[in-house]
Amino acid sequence: MLSRTLKYAYYPGCVAQGACGELHQSTVALCRVLGIELFELKKAACCGSGTFKEDSQLLEDTVNARNIALAEELNLPLLTHCSTCQGVIGHVDERLKEYQKTQPDYLGRVNNFLEKEGCLPYRGKTQVKHLLYALVADFGIEEIVQRVTRKLTGLKCAAFYGCYLLRAQKSMTNDNPFHPEAMENVFRAVGSTPIYYRGRTQCCGWPLSSYATKESFQMAGKHIQEALEAGADCLVTPCPLCHLNLDSRQPEVEKVIGEKLGLPVLHLPQLVALAVGVSPKELGLSRHVVNTKPILEKLGIKD
User: For position 154, what pLDDT does the model report?
Assistant: First the structure.
């Protein structure tokens, strides 16, 4: 058993409180069962998902320095469950920590804006960590194994890491950015079988969807097809934006590629929470566009 209670300043982000509300729901449920304490940063702002810097790098840095400062005020690491939020906030944190040494005047400008808004300054005294790596590195794979009450034996899971989680930062994880194993190790811990396929570390196509919709859906369709051909029962993703393109838009993807897919897509905390005994209803599995009942039927779980 863990010798201490894990505590995080929880940054839910925008999508998990809107279009993917089940992600917030399942993260809270999983952490409650595992005994992980979450202190939600209700005053936090949208990270900008990479769009702020198109207009102003200073804007992106200031908004996210404030988000990090809110966690610093609690003396806790900032926990995300969105690859995009992790990539943006984590990269800002990495950059500003470097600027403490190399560009203190720039950091002074950032903190001046925070001071004008009545916020504490950015001090570079905490970490920005995704839920995946909080589970793997802080909680521990062996601890997950011990907490499993419902082994997901026979379920073939294909990870969809996406791009932001693995390659936006230099120091967030020891995972190989092109050949990661963290999610597959979690799959094994809960009793499921990892499925490997080419597209698991590539972009889902979401960033293209607003101006190159056909190409975006073709990308998503190719990844889903490859996972199906490899024998997957489901995709599992650590990013709600990937989830939107792969799950909620899957019917549109099918029309673009001219092929029926029907592959369920789970959020990472939903998968782990199923294994530690949380009910499908509490995890919001009925909110998904692609029916998740085939997964529950294969596992013998009543919804």
Answer: 97
